[in-house]
């Protein structure tokens, strides 16, 4: 085939492109990453022993919903930025909604709590390890998503890395919530958020290197 014929064929769109290739690759990467993250959590941390009774409490589902919403926003961002013309400016702003809700709930609860309990509501018993453990559990998801993204066509590599980190951190927090005994909204809005932001920042800093074509 002559070069001119090839260019004409590409311009006319006659080359078959697999449908839903982005969603399929990201779905596979997320599935592999989640299984590895869950296995790592079971091996290193274990499920919280009172998980069944804790799941009856509203704050357990608030915690899970916060982490899940950040992971889903990250998923939407990754899917968009995986394309050459993708933009995620408005998608990243969507994180303000779950963050704002958990902070509003935190302010209400702190305002109505005795002053002697406010410190514990913020720091709990595990504040010093929570962000690092979320980051650890996000690592398998982060690696799997990087593998998927390198097979796609992101052009804004820093933003793509940040989106991968956000998605990884959110889903890592979902896995960590099955171990974490903390239930306070101020704790979740501070230390869970920090645990999600760490891989986001790492992804933004390393995206230009790790996602380079």
Distance from N terminus to C terminus (CA atoms, Å) equals 27 Å
Shape type: globular
User: What's the mean pLDDT score?
Assistant: 90
How many DSSP helices? 10
Order of helices and strands: HHHHHHHHHH
Protein name: Anti-sigma-F factor NrsF
Pfam families: NrsF (PF06532)
InterPro entries: NrsF
Describe it for me?
- The two termini are 27 Å apart.
- The protein has helices at 3-11, 21-44, 51-54, 58-81, 89-93, 96-112, 115-123, 130-150, 157-177, 185-210.
- It is globular, with a radius of gyration of 20 Å.
- It is 75% helix and 0% strand.
- Helix 4 (58-81) runs parallel beside helix 10 (185-210).
- It is mainly alpha-helical and 213 residues long.
- It has one domain (20-210).
- Residues 6-10 and 13-17 have low confidence and may be disordered.
- The longest helix is centred in the last third of the chain and has 26 residues, at 185-210.
Give a short summary of the structure.
With 213 residues, this protein is an all-alpha fold.
